[in-house]
Amino acid sequence: MTLRDLALKHGTDKAGGRDNPDRHEYCEAYEFFLESWKMHAFTMLEIGVGGYNFEDRGGESLRMWRKYFPHAQVFGMYLYDKSFKVERVHIYRGDQTNPIVFNEIVNDAQFPIRLIIDDASHIPALTLKTFEICWPLLAPGGIYVIEDVHASYWTEGGFNGGYDNPATPMNYFKDQADWLNLYHWN
Q: Rounded to an integer, what is the distance from CA 80 to the centroid of its chain?
């Protein structure tokens, strides 16, 4: 099965397209970068489980990742307690900016963390704080993904984003790319 097939099967919002237009189209990009990892043993962490404060809801993408990476250790982290159990998936409760919870995950991991996906609050300040905490936890050669960066442009609902706001993930990472190319500035 393709990752998109698994996403549709498990009901995650990561599989968009013509037949699923209200969802994101992340699966093709994920497969492009991660297909060679399918049979490898490593640890992945997805921050954000879904289902809001309902204990028995969420985890759709964790189920998808568990099937896509049959030898990986799959960790999830969420603000609210999740009472459901999924084989080979470990869910930790905590705020996405709490380094204590992330250290607990690192200590419990059997393999290096090679993949971190931030699909949590999408609030720019929290997204950037999470990146600052988690980037050093990522193994060399690993991949760090921030989903839903379009929230960088949202100005209402506590997002405090905007096109010109330097405190958004879009502008933060563009700034990083600019500095990497410092010697090419005119």
A: 17
Known active-site residue 122? yes
Rounded to an integer, what distance in angstroms lies between the CA atom of residue 162 and that of residue 44? 31
**Residue 10 near residue 63, CB atoms below 8 Å:** yes
Q: pLDDT tens for residues 24-35?
A: 889 999 999 999
Instruction: Determine the Cα angle at 84 with ends 79 and 88, to 5°.
Output: 95
10, 24, 71, 122: the catalytic one is 122
Taking only the tens place, the pLDDT of each residue in 115-173 is 999 999 999 999 999 999 999 999 999 999 999 999 999 998 888 899 989 999 999 99
Q: How many whole angstroms separate alpha carbon 180 and alpha carbon 176?
A: 6
Residues found in the chain = 186
